[in-house]
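hey
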């Protein structure tokens, strides 16, 4: 039993993937090859934006977007404490302050009702995370942002392929960034990412930033970095993309089967009306999680915890001086969440095996 089975996916698409890689090898255009621009165009059309700008990782996509907005020392960016560290890391690396907002008790995405009270004259952006593959409530967040004239950067590193009220993740706000890490819903065979936007000026700045701030060769208009998406990774993603909608449909079917058959004592994920999650993780909530996880492993069923320590309790953010009680929903979720095996090639018999082991492992 694999938590995520990348090998079966490769075997299914092997001919096309191998041919795409070979084409890059034959051309020797490993950096800025034509596949990068092609992928940007294809994925921007899928998301519904004017621009897609490829980056070397999802983290770099997030950071470069904040850099393009000139966010830095003394600024504040509102985000969630219940996510992977990259979401807040990119804020702090630029010298700005992550301002955490507790999460919704059902979806575990940032709670829009708590955002406005955290806005100060130093607030320069809002960075919601679309956790576990479900979009945050961008309608509410965008309304608040518009009122206060703030840009919104959706961290869609877990939600590429998801939709919110009929529109795609990463195309729902000022900008959206995603990750192509191998385990993501659309993954490459290394690191990769992309930022999507309808803002022509932002897209132009992003392309400059990812090339060491070069507006022209050896002419550096701003500070940037080495953030390019490798041509081979772009080629792999192009080879996999024609199958992506089928994988999205499979993820819906697999998630629905899980939800319909979860044993008593396992709280299913809550999907907000109007949302279609991509289920990058299928995450339930249980009591005495560590014991449940141990029992599952004894039955050879792998599980994962996304995420055991909220960001406000991470040592690297101790200087923010948040208290345990400041974000009670995030703290409680961190004690209970448990992710089950999930990938678009799971069979029903494999799911039944997971469900049976879970039933035997729960503490009621």
């Amino acid at each position: 039993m694999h938590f995520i089975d990348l090998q079966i996916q490769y075997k299914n698409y092997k001919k096309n993937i191998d041919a795409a890689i070979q084409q890059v090898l034959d051309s020797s255009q490993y950096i800025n090859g034509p596949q990068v621009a092609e992928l940007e165009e294809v994925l921007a059309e899928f998301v519904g934006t004017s621009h897609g700008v490829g980056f070397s990782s999802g983290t770099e996509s997030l950071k470069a977007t904040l850099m393009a907005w000139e966010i830095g020392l003394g600024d504040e960016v509102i985000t969630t404490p219940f996510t992977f560290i990259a979401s807040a890391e990119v804020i702090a690396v630029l010298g700005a302050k992550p301002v955490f907002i507790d999460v919704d008790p059902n979806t575990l995405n940032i709670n829009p009702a708590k955002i406005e009270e955290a806005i100060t004259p130093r607030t320069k952006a809002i960075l919601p995370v679309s956790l576990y593959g479900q979009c945050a409530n961008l309608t509410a967040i965008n309304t608040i942002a518009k009122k206060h004239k703030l840009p919104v950067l959706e961290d869609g590193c877990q939600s590429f392929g998801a939709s919110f009220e009929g529109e795609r993740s990463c195309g729902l706000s000022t900008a959206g960034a995603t990750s192509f890490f191998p385990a993501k819903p659309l993954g490459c065979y290394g690191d990769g990412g992309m930022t999507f936007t309808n803002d022509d000026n932002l897209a132009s700045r992003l392309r400059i930033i990812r090339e060491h701030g070069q507006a022209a060769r050896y002419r550096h208009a701003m500070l940037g970095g080495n953030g390019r998406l490798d041509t081979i990774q772009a080629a792999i993603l192009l080879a996999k993309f024609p199958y992506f909608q089928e994988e999205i449909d499979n993820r819906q079917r697999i998630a629905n089967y899980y939800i319909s058959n979860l044993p008593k004592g396992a709280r299913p994920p809550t999907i907000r009306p109007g949302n279609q999650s991509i289920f990058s993780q299928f995450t339930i909530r249980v009591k005495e999680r560590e014991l449940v996880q141990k029992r599952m492993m004894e039955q050879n069923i792998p599980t994962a915890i996304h995420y055991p320590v909220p960001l406000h309790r991470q040592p690297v953010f101790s200087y923010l001086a948040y208290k345990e009680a400041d974000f009670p929903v995030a703290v409680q979720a961190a004690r209970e969440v448990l992710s089950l095996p999930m990938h678009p090639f799971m069979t029903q018999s494999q799911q039944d095996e997971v469900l049976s082991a879970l039933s035997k492992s729960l503490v009621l």
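The chain has a mean pLDDT of 97. The two ends are 26 Å apart (CA to CA).
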